[in-house]
Structures are given as C-alpha cells and as structure tokens.
Amino acid sequence: MSDTCEHKENEDCMICHECHKCSESLDEDDICSECLAKDDMSGKGKPKSKLPTLTDEQRAEYIKQGGVKCPFCNDCSLESAPVQIDGGVAWQETSCGACGEEWQDIYKLDRIELKGD
After folding, report:
1. 65 and 34, same structural domain?
2. Domain range holding 89?
C-alpha cells in the first residue's frame, strides 16, 4: 500500500502494490492498467502482467510428484527459499528457473516421531 494513502490493502494492485482507489479501478484480478500494459521480462521473456493460474489437475500432479517439477512448465529447475513456520503450517517461496513462475509450497504437520524411532 502506498505510504501516503489511507485505503485498505484490498484496493492495491496485486503486482505493483500501489493504491489505485482514487485514480483508477482495478480489473477482475486486482491489477492496475499500468501493470497490465507492462511486459515484465523477468520471467525469461514471458510477460508477467497477469497472475498465473493452475488447474486442479496441475496442482494435484505437482503434489503427487512431491514438488520436484514446475507445475506450469514441468521443468526441474526449481529454486526454493528457506521454509517459514507458523503454528502447524509451514510455507516456502518457490520459483522455476525455466519459465519464471513463482508460488508458495504449503506444508502441514503430518505426524510425530519420537527420537530413536
């Protein structure tokens, strides 16, 4: 949210995070027209103006494979940040070196094992 604005975060663009409440309306994906017009080439030549989407099948296949291949392009060039933990949930920022897409892997507490087991 911009430092000079008092609007809520849900009025911010999902890409540039600037408030556009007073100056323009956002599209259905909460992206401002300035970001929609840009061709951000950080994704190896792929325009990143819209947020990526995955089908339920793509999500299920990514989880089934253990998160070792990109759910967008199926490449193995993944980079992951350190795992962050809060309560019984953990998450990890992950990106693909091939297509440039970014996402979060979400983990939950599955079991407990005693030392020496």
Report:
1. no
2. 56-108
The three state secondary structure string of the chain is CCCCCCCCHHHECCCCCCECCCCCCCCCCCCCHHHHHCCCCCECCECCCCCCCCCHHHHHHHHHCCCCCCCCCCCCCEEECCCEEECCEEEEEEEECCCCCEEEEEEECCCCCCCCC
The pTM of this model reads 0.54
In tens, the pLDDT along 79-108 reads: 999 999 998 889 999 999 999 999 999 998
**Predicted pLDDT at 88:** 81
DSSP structural state of residue 88 = T
pLDDT over 90 at 75, yes or no: yes
